[in-house]
Design a protein that fits this description.
Blueprint: E1 2-8, H1 12-17, E2 23-26, E3 34-40, H2 47-54, H3 57-62, E4 89-101, H4 112-115, E5 124-138, E6 146-149, H5 152-155
């Protein structure tokens, strides 16, 4: 079965997969509504920039479900993000239910949601519901929305 897919840089793709991010902000709108495969791009931030982002307490707490041995201790600077963040793989399936201009006030954008997205004026917040983390599988990402074949057991 083919469904629409969207590539995001890490850690934002994994924030969606663990349920910490319910809106994906984009500079463009879409009329599409329906199932959406969330893919973690192969590239993105430099390892240094990613490590700096991931030591922020809000990110550590939000991504806690991905740590095999609990939250890393004092040696946060020693992390290698690829140890727990998949790159170049699909990580979740969600329902895209709305595309909202960010100038509209939404109480959901307060707090962590505002930390994990760019809600500045002139952008769009894509509302993601019924998010389901999946066993990551390799995907060649693209810009914009694209279609990808997924295993039948994921379509349910």
């Amino acid at each position: 079965m083919k469904i629409k897919a969207l590539s995001l840089w890490q850690p934002w793709a994994s924030l969606i997969a663990v349920g910490a991010k319910q809106y994906e902000t984009r500079s463009w709108k879409t009329d599409y509504r329906g199932p959406l495969l969330i893919c973690a791009a192969q590239g993105g931030l430099s390892e240094k920039a990613l490590k700096e982002l991931l030591i922020q307490p809000k990110f550590v707490k939000a991504l806690e479900p991905l740590f095999d041995a609990g939250v890393p201790g004092d040696n946060l600077q020693q992390w290698i993000p690829s140890w727990f963040l998949p790159f170049g793989k699909a990580v979740a399936i969600a329902q895209l239910t709305a595309c909202i201009p960010t100038f509209q006030y939404q109480t959901d954008w307060i707090g962590l949601e505002a930390t994990f997205g760019d809600f500045s004026s002139g952008r769009y917040a894509w509302k993601l519901e019924n998010v389901r983390a999946i066993e990551p599988f390799p995907v060649k990402g693209r810009q914009g929305l694209f279609k990808i074949e997924i295993p039948e057991d994921l379509a349910a």
